[in-house]
Amino acid sequence: MNAPATLDRDLSADFPGLCTAEGKPWHYLDTAATAQKPRAVIEAMTRALGEDYATVHRGVYARSAEMTLRYEAARRRVAQFIGGQEDELIFTRGATEAINLVANSWGRANLKPGDRILLSQLEHHSNIVPWQLVARETGAEIDVVPLTQDHRIDLDAAEEMLGERHKMVAFGHVSNVLGSVLDAPRAAAMAHRVGAKLLLDGCQSAPHMPVDVEALDCDFYVFSAHKLYGPTGIGALWARGDILADMPPWEGGGAMIDRVTFEGTTYAPPPQRFEAGTPAIAEAIAFAAAADYVAEADLDTVRVREADLVARLRRELTAMNDVTVFGPDDSAGIVSFAIDGIHPHDLGTILDEADVAIRAGHHCAQPLMDYLGITATARASFGLYSREADVDALLEGIARTRRIFGTSG
Ligand code: PMP
């Protein structure tokens, strides 16, 4: 495939984390857990914590006023990255906190006994447990959509299940285990037909494909900066302005108020209403730097590149008699598999000796593991710095593991 100029360059050179302590290449295939950081992000964070550092929204001195402008510019940049408006974007600690915010604020205000929440079998625990907690409090109930044969959320089944009592549909846009991509506009149309809202867990879509919340037609979209080559400790909730305007505060404190008295407090408009306390200032600025970096790499190109790596790895693994490969062929940058007679943890440990890092376990998706009838998978996940050499190293490592275990594929 032809890659444009930006990706003709080996982007891995921008990532100091991509080599071992001995200076050898590190075959990092765990980007779905967290992505390595390019120098541009590290430098933005260092500058924000160093010569630019000051608080935001409160200081009367120039440095604080400048930092406030930088922080709000970061909000604008991150909102624009997903096609949203700046006053519709709330900085959170990550996707997990963003879903908890929606469940606690929107959920408590809108769910009542007998209402239903529609989730799917492949959700990350972050998109299950907050809904269980709010369901228990409000008397709402949860329904679970099964998967298709090729491990996508079964939207035909979802369509049959959805009824007037459903108020929320919360689906993973891309599965962190299977890489399956949701047909989000169809899910949105189905949810809206019965008057429900659609929340997309975008943790694994934002790093792998261009996202436009308007085109997806969702009501809420959440994602984490650290999976998008940005820092930990920050993520975002995007929500439609009219929905946010009606949502009550979730956490109370400084910065989210209009006026505080002991008789009663009034609240700031969104997004400030949902950002209590001093925010993660340097992280927000580095989040915006990550958005700049990814935009320059061009997600359309990244997607094609990652699809080539996925296709090759799936092809090679599928040709092995003792390997089960999960998820659909067009998985977004993620390949989960299991080798007969070799536990994924053992595989991960032996691969580590060859400087190959994969993830092994339930991937915070135990209901999905139950559905697949397994307890764990091995997962290789790609990023914009992944190369053929990483796939070569993984395949060599699998062959070596087989020799150690005395099995053959
Ligand atoms: N949803 C999905 C699909 C994820 O992959 C993850 C991270 N593994 C999360 C939610 C939670 O993200 P965070 O831990 O950054 O809040």
Q: How would you classify the quaternary structure?
A: single chain
**Distance N to C terminus:** 30 Å
Pairing-aware structural class of the strands and helices?
A: alpha/beta
Number of helices: 14
Q: Could you say what the CATH architecture of the largest domain is? A: 3-Layer(aba) Sandwich
Major pleated sheet: 7 strands, mixed
- The helical percent reads 25-40%
Number of strands: 15
Task: Report strand order across the widest sheet.
Answer: 2-8-7-6-5-3-4
Structure description:
The protein has 14 helices and 15 strands. With 409 residues, the chain is of the alpha/beta class. It has two domains: 11-37 and 298-405, Alpha-Beta Complex (Aspartate Aminotransferase, domain 1); 45-295, Aspartate Aminotransferase, domain 2 (3-Layer(aba) Sandwich). The strands form four sheets. The protein has a seven-stranded mixed beta sheet, sandwiched between helices. It has a four-stranded antiparallel beta sheet with strand order 11-12-15-14, with helices on one face. β5, α7 (184-193) and β6 form a beta-alpha-beta unit. α2 (39-49) packs antiparallel against α10, α3 (62-81) packs across α10 (281-297) and α12 crosses α14 (388-405). The model is unreliable at 1-5 (pLDDT under 50). 4'-deoxy-4'-aminopyridoxal-5'-phosphate binds next to α4. Residues 94-96, 124, 126-127, 172, 176, 201, 203-204, 224, 235, 364 line the site of 4'-deoxy-4'-aminopyridoxal-5'-phosphate.
